[in-house]
Predict the structure.
Amino acid sequence: MDDAVRVRLQQIRLRKLDCQRHIRILTQKLASNPHDLWTRKELERLEDLLSKLEEQERQLAGKKGGEEDEKSESENSGSR
């Protein structure tokens, strides 16, 4: 399961990078032509997708990190 979470996190991070790259390109395109409605809609769609991907990444990282935190807390409480 840990490997599956790690793989899913990697996929999400790659997709986030791709979205960020497209957002930069669309922002530049929109700056050169502010009346381009398709570019504006596509930019909004990608920004929404990016926020959803960030939320998924936080949830998975929390799930993975939560397991590691529990292990480190039990180790730390034993040494106190």
